[in-house]
Task: structure prediction
Amino acid sequence: MDERRRLAKEVELAATPDQVWQAIATPEGMSLWFVPHEHSGAEIEADFGGGNTQAGQVLEREPGRRVVYGAPGPDGEAPTEIEFLVEGRESGSPDRPASTVLRLVQSGFFDGDDWAAEYDGFGKGWDVFLHNLAEYFRHFAGLPVTNVVATGFTDLPGEAVWAELTALLGAEPALGERVRLTPTGLEPVAGVVDLRERLLLGIRTEHGFYRFLVDDLHHMVSTTQYFYGVAVDRASRTAAWQAWIDRLTRR
Result:
């Protein structure tokens, strides 16, 4: 395999190694910052919204330190593998608490003319999710999560979909800006912009995160939402946002 197809990420987290281990080694923990995860027999199933799920298994596990997840590749190819490695870091100063470094390595990218775009897309996606994890420990540590995920697909160009999405949200704010989004037919979203890139908008609210993304490569538009420590009707809220996404992708 070309060494460039081994994607590596690292993030320092304001948490103990045990807290980080729980966040990457259990379905409940993965749901805190990634997408909803549940046990499905011997497998763990991830829900990416709109009926799109992916199942995988734990291939290797060193409790408290390392876990490797994997899913079979197409036509007998090598599996896609995602390795998480947890490493505690001692404080170098009485004024600075100890932290934990989380390392992630993904391998098994499929061959094809667009593998480089796939590689870059996964890299940007992990940047978002690892940012979620860091922000969770910074603002909501210890609180349980309710996830809302909605996904749709469209043949329209990404920029056109993004323009329509931000119009329906009622704003296209800059990073760090305080904003009140008014998504058509849904309750307002008030908070601060903590993620902002091309075709990506993230809002941190009093109780969690809202993420909006248009994926040009997969012709996909999605919202991933996290509500911490508050009562949320996941089913009805998911249905409402899925209907919102569906209206957007049918335009």
In short: The two ends are 41 Å apart (CA to CA). The first strand starts at residue 7 and ends at 13. The domain at 143-251 is CATH 3.30.530.20 (Alpha-D-Glucose-1,6-Bisphosphate; Chain A, domain 4). The longest helix spans residues 115-139.
